Amino acid sequence: MRQLPHLIVLLLAVAGLVLLAGCSDDDTGTNTNLAKGKLSDPVFQALNSSLYISEGYANLLMNFGYMVGDSVIGHAENPGVKGIWTESALAAASDSIFLTYHDDSQYWYLYYRHADDSETLVIEDSVQYFHGLTPVQWPDSTQWVRINMSGSLSFVEAGGEGNITVGQSVSLTRSLAAPNVILLNGSDVFDVDIRNYDHGVTCGYDLSMTGTYTNIALNFADEEECPSSGSYVYRGSAAMECTGDPGFSLEDSWTIATEYRGDSVRTTVENATTRWVFNEPCDDQGQPALRPTLRRK
Question: Do residues 39 and 249 touch, judged by C-beta distance below 8 A?
Fold first, then answer.
């Protein structure tokens, strides 16, 4: 069985803002009143950290949709194969997980809950498959042309350290004439209220963002290949307050736009006063200096 492209999530995160370490661009865009930003700007670094955390949970939700897809397709082709809804998927005896099919909506529905002394995570996901224009319960991995996924995630950390909600609706489409080219479209929305501890700096983040994915072209034959085209854009507000060195507070509206250009990725970040523009080789990612770490007390 050919797996669904789990690394779509990784490609979106790795090629996006949160791992940027490429060359700054001199392009000032259409609004010449915006100053050119530097990667070392602490405001940019704080936004980078908050988006890294937020995207991680949005990607977790999307990954659950892909796991449902693999389980359903795998069960359809090999009925004796166990899916992710088995007890082996649970981290603790108190966790809950089940997957069921709704005949009326023609969607698979997943519910997952993990809770311990430090955190509670709840994920609900719905997945639908199409052969041509017809929804099917048991898809054939060689015949599906569309997969719809929509879901929600809620994460609450004990002691008021974190509260994250994510909503998401995406689709994967392909033509059977060119089955290795998959287009990702859709949107997500996340609200984040969380504290982050990194390199002696403590930051509190309050974000409300909406993201849009547009025709992101993925290679089904090579899951590690970057998208050849397409874009995604985040828009919304972010309030940040950091103590330490440096310390600052900021509340502003932001737009973060990423465009895939085959062997490169272009990202533009803007707030009311500043624009950061970066070009990144798609095969030169994974810069650990820009990867913030979420640390609990």
Answer: no
CA 78 to the chain's CA centroid: 30
Question: Of how many residues is the chain composed?
Answer: 297
Token pair in block for residue 79: 């009925």
H or E segment at 118?
none
CA angle 233, 156, 90 (to 5 degrees): 95
User: Do 107 and 124 touch, CB atoms closer than 8 A?
Assistant: no
Q: Give this prediction's pTM.
A: 0.80
The single-letter code of the amino acid at 289 is A
Q: How far apart are CA 283 and CA 189, in angstroms?
A: 28
How deeply is 127 buried, as exposed, middle or buried, from its count of CB atoms within 10 A (0-12, 13-18, 19+)?
A: buried
Structural domain boundaries in the chain: 7-22+42-283
Exposure letters 19-31 (e unless 16+ CB within 10 A, then b): bbebeebeeeeee
Tens digits of per-residue pLDDT, 125-166?
999 999 999 999 999 888 999 999 999 999 988 776 688 899
Cα 151 to the chain's mean position, in Å? 13
Strands 35-36 and 274-281: parallel
* Beta strand spans in the chain (E): 23-24, 35-36, 96-102, 107-115, 119-131, 134-136, 146-157, 162-175, 178-198, 201-219, 231-243, 248-260, 264-270, 274-281
Which pLDDT score, from 0 to 100, does residue 79 have? 65
Beta bridge partners of 193: 163, 206
Q: How confident is the model at residue 197 (pLDDT cuts 50, 70, 90)?
A: low
Query: Residue 99's pLDDT is what?
Result: 85
> For the purposes of burial, counting CB atoms within 10 Å of the CB of 89, is it exposed (0-12), middle (13-18) or buried (19 or more)?
middle
Query: Structure tokens of 181?
Result: 């080219």
Beta strands 162-175 and 264-270 are: unpaired
Rounded mean pLDDT, 55-59: 81
Q: Is residue 81 pLDDT above 70, yes or no?
A: no
